[in-house]
Every structure is written in structure tokens, then in C-alpha cells.
Known about the structure:
- The complex is a heterotrimer.
- By secondary structure, chain A is an all-alpha fold.
- Chain A has helices spanning 9-31, 35-55, 59-83, 93-114, 126-129, 131-143, 149-156, 158-179, 183-195, 200-208.
- The relative contact order of chain B is 0.11.
Amino acid sequence: MHSMFNGDFGIVLVNIFLLAILFATGVAIARMRSLFAIVMLSGIYSLVSAAWYVAVDAVDVAFTEAAVGAGMSTVVLLGAMLLTSRTAKPEKLFFRLGPLLVCLATGAALIYATVDLPALGDASSPANAGVGLTYLQVAWFETGIPNVVTPVLGSYRGFDTLGETCVVFTAGLAVALLLGFGERSLAERIRNEGRSGDHSTRKASAASDEDPS
Amino acid sequence: MLEFLLERANYWVVIVLMMIGLYITFASQNLIKRMVGLGLFQTTICLFYVTLGKVSGGTAPILFGDDAIEHHGAGHGAETEGGHAALDAVLAAGGEHAERVAHLTNTYSNPLPHVLMLTAIVVGVATLSVGLALVVRIREAYGSIENDEVNEIDLETALAQHAEAEKAVSEATA
Amino acid sequence: MNTDHHVILRVIAKMLIPVITMFAFYVQFHGDFGPGGGFQAGVIIAVAVILYALVFGVPAAMRAVPPVFTRSLAAVGVMIYAGVGFWAMLQGGHYLEYQALFHEPPGEHHGQHIGILGIELGVLCGVSGAMLTIFYAFAGRVAEIRDEDW
Lengths: 213, 174, 150
């Protein structure tokens, strides 16, 4: 790790600290049963990993993770939690033992595979000496944009990004097809609240929302 | 040996985090908790990719200093008039595209994993929403989001349908 | 939402929402020079509307930004992105080849700047529209958990 940061002790401490927070948050999520706490902790996990992205120089990814992972996905998870339930059932012992063994085996296999990986921060590793370095070298002459991530995203890999945009659009469409665009159920709620305002009619509107008319 | 371990300790921590996400996805019966575990797993995979693109001593892949000086002409303003002439001069002096591959004075991290993970995060939240929408529909259809309860209801419904079909057949033959 | 104890929240939100929107456009148009781009700006714009919906209620947000508009915005975003590609084809280049937009030799950057700006605009519209559609889909459903249960 010291070679990664050129012996800068402070950044190594930040690195260890952030990874420790991530580990604690992950273990807490695995042990929690309150879904509200789980959703909030997953937001914290995203935010801390965004801080860690800055420590490994990925400022664009950090920005995206902070906006999307910590903001948007927490909102969506909270919305889904409101529509379902607040607590999870405790897992049975059998259901904990099997996955634990699978995860231990997978983790051991992955750690065995890292022995062949290049060292962290190795500038001459195949990943860093290949196309990534070429982008850095040619991007300024070819596009004149200092932030190399933007030309790689938009120009060199424009097809890729077009595909991603289509995926996001399709996901929005799929959610709208599954849950409705939100207008009909909302109109029903406003009508019900205007009529009586108590909660028994909300249940009725939820039931009437079911019919696939 | 110690250096070998230290250089890879970061990978191992990330793999442990990954396995926590995988464990949550496998072990929990609650579908929302499962989706959270999947999100955790995905975030950690992005961490792993970005770690591989780190270059020691490098900075964020935003060109600065000598790397971001206009190679030809005086600047963006003069580019329209002087650009062609300067480029022609460059091409005449150094052959084809001599300036094309710049010699970088500063060290930067690899931008490619950043681009891939940036889009992966956005697609991740989109797929997470689709999964959660399915969970909401499951809750409306079954009244539960616990996996084992949903399976039980499915089994009971299938048995009831089977019994009904058998009864109908026996009535038809009788 | 007619109770009085949310007044500080509402005043602060009213101050924050224009700033958030402006920051989104800064992120969008400054993405060439610093961290940022269409994906981030789209989500930030969506978050501004979501903040409005959380503080002033979903019906008010739906009146301000109708669901019809958000889902059209998502479709229009993808079309803008694909349209930039077809523009390059009409100019005689390959699909999404920005260098061909103004018939420039290598080393000239106007086509690249305009092309990347165009597709980032498409990504902005697509992502913010899709995210708001997703939010409205979840928020428009009738909640199972009542407010008093928290």
C-alpha cells in the first residue's frame, strides 16, 4: 500500500479509515433487521465509497456515486420500502450457514486469483499501459478537452454511452409499466382524501388499483 | 514478501466487502434487503475496477500544466484562422501526425475504468429500480416480501389448483 | 402539508432548489474541464424536483413537472443522442464521428466540442426524465405504511 501512495502516510491512513468504515457498514447491513436502517446504511456506504473514489483519483466516479448511489438509489429504496414493509424476518440458521460457506469459498478463490494480478498502482500493468494511456496521450490533440473522462465517454466510446442511455430509458419505461406512471393512483388518492380524509379509504384505493382495467 | 502482501492488501479488503454483499444477497429472505445487498455488491465491484486503474503518484485524469497547452496556434480564439497553417507546418516538419501522441509530463491515473464504472453506476440504479418495482408488485400480489412465504403461497396455490383440476376431471368422468 | 411546523423546511427548500438546478447546469457545461457530465447533471436535476416533491408534496410536484413531461423528456434525450449520430452521418462521416460534423482535419476541435455537448445534453434529458419517471412511479403509489407508524 505504501508504494501505491508513494509513502504518503496520511493518505494511507485515510485509505485504511475509509475501508474500515465500509467494512463496518457492510457488516451492520448484514446483521440489521430494520429495513429503514438498512436503506440508510446503504446510503452511507455509497457516500463513504464516493470519498474513497476521490482517494484513488476517480473524481468523476466519486461525483456519480455521491449523486446517484447516495441520493437517487436511497430515494428509490425508501419509496419501495414505504410500499412494502419496515422489518425483515430473522434468517434461519440453515439459510445463514449455506451462503456463508459459498461466500467463503468464492472469496478464497478470488483472493487466490489476486496473486497473479499486478501490484496496486503499477504504471506498467497491462490495464494501465494499454488503451488507457493512449487515451491520455491522444485526447488533447484530437478533442481539445482537458478532462479525459469526457472525450472517452462521449467520443471514443460514444456507442457504449448511447447503449447506457437506452438502458436507463428502458429501465424508466419498465418501472412505469410495472407501477403505473403515478397519475391515476395519485388522482384516486386526492379524490379519496377530499371525500373523507381517513385512512380506511386509502386501503380501498390500493385495492381498486389492482384491477387491470 | 511483506511488500507483496501490502501491494495486494487493498484488493483483499475490497474482495471481503464484495463477499459481504454476496452474503446479504444469498442469506436474507427479505427481498428489499436482497436488493440492498446486490447494490452493495455492485458498488464494491466498481471499487475494484477503479482500484485497478490507479497509478502510483498519479492524479485524476484531468490534463493540466504542460499537458494542456495548445499544440498549435495561439489558443482557441486564434484556432479558426491559424489552426490550419500551424497544423500544416507540424505535418510538414514531423511527418504524419507527429503531435498526435503527446508526451505527458504529469502522471495520471487510467481514465478507462472511470468511464466504464461511471456508466455502470447509473445503469445500476436503473436496474435497482426495476427490481424494486417487481418487489412492490410481489408485495401487492402476495402480501409479503419474504422469499420463503412467497414460495409457500405459490406451493399452496399450485396444490389447490391441482386438486381442483382433479376434482373437475373426476366429476366429468362420473 | 397545511401544518405550520414545516415552515423552516419549506423556506430553506425554496432557497435551495434554484441553486441545485443551477449547479446541475454548471456540472453539465463544465464537464469538459472538471469532473461532471450529463449523467451527474441529470441526476442532480431530478434530485431538485424530488426535493420539491418531498417538501411540498407529490401532487404539487406533479403539477410543476407533469409525468407526461418527464417521460417525454426521457424519450427526447435518447433521440437527441441518436440524432447527433445521424447528423454526423449526414455530413458524410461515420455514426457519432464528431470530426465530420464541420468537415475538420484532425487537430481541430469544434466538431468534437459541439458533438460532445450535444450528446451530453441528450444524456441529461434522458437520465433526468427516466429518474423522475421512476420516482413518480414509486411516489404515486398509495403508501402501505401510514405516517403515524414511524
